[in-house]
Amino acid sequence: MQLLETLKIDQGKIPFLAFHNARFNATRKALFNVKETTDLADFIYPPDLDCYRCRIIYGKNIEKIEFIPFQQRSFKTFQLVYHDYINYAFKYLDRQAIQQLVQQKQTADDILIIKQGVITDTSIANVAFFDGQNWITPQNPLLKGTARARLLNERKIIEQPILVSELKNFSKMALMNALIDFMVLDDFILIGG
């Protein structure tokens, strides 16, 4: 079983490394009973320039570290896709179940996954929606991302269940992950609601 930790490297620095360390160590403890903690900074020797995506492939131990130049994508349209039994509680390298759902996106930029009637995540990011006062993130995402954990900790977002029928009540949408941080979409389209 291989897992993945994805970090942003910006000008040779790793933003919010503590959240990546926490998830990496919690995952290894839960899946492999590894009790000692590891600081990923001891294994990452990033390029100094530009913005990179650092992919750490691991199991019980770190197996591979690679650096890929980061290219920002744009998002506006999201195809709602439904799957009541999808499970992605850990960031597995094998994303076959999610990739099968992505095939349903048609002309949309990405998908928004609905599990048992509630919003979870897109294929690449946690989400939040603005209700006019607060940014709300789903209480039960497929994956508890590091940017989501940090923003909850900073009280910039709050979590609660979001039903599909409630999507019409939100004026803005945001995507969040380690690479894009908190990307606000003032103009977004949901297809198939």
Strand composition percent: 25-35%
Q: Evaluate the radius of gyration.
A: 17 Å
Taking pLDDT < 50 over at least 5 consecutive residues as the criterion, the unreliable ranges are: none
Number of strands: 12
Number of helices: 3
Instruction: Report the span from N to C terminus.
Output: 35 Å
How does the overall form come out from the CA principal axes?
globular
Average per-residue pLDDT, rounded, comes to 94
Task: Determine the fraction of residues in helical runs and give it as a percent range.
Answer: 10-25%
Strand order of the largest sheet: 9-8-7-10-11
Q: What is the chain-wise order of helices and strands?
A: EHEEEHEEEEHEEEE
Give me the secondary-structure category.
alpha/beta
Query: Largest sheet at a glance?
Result: 5 strands, mixed
Note the topology:
Blueprint: E1 3-10, H1 17-32, E2 51-58, E3 62-69, E4 77-82, H2 96-102, E5 110-115, E6 118-122, E7 126-130, E8 135-138, H3 146-153, E9 158-160, E10 172-177, E11 181-185, E12 189-191
Parallel strand pairs: 4-5, 4-12, 8-9
Antiparallel strand pairs: 1-2, 2-3, 5-6, 7-8, 7-10, 10-11
Structure at a glance:
The chain has helices at residues 17-32, 96-102, 146-153; strands spanning 3-10, 51-58, 62-69, 77-82, 110-115, 118-122, 126-130, 135-138, 158-160, 172-177, 181-185, 189-191. It is of the alpha/beta class and 193 residues long.
Overview of this structure, please?
It is a single chain. 16% of the residues lie in helices and 35% in strands. The chain has 3 helices and 12 strands; from the N terminus they run E-H-E-E-E-H-E-E-E-E-H-E-E-E-E. The strands form 3 sheets. Strands 9-8-7-10-11 form a 5-stranded mixed β-sheet, with helices on one face. A 4-stranded mixed β-sheet has the order 6-5-4-12, with no helix packed on it. The longest helix is centred in the N-terminal third of the chain and has 16 residues, at 17-32. It is globular.
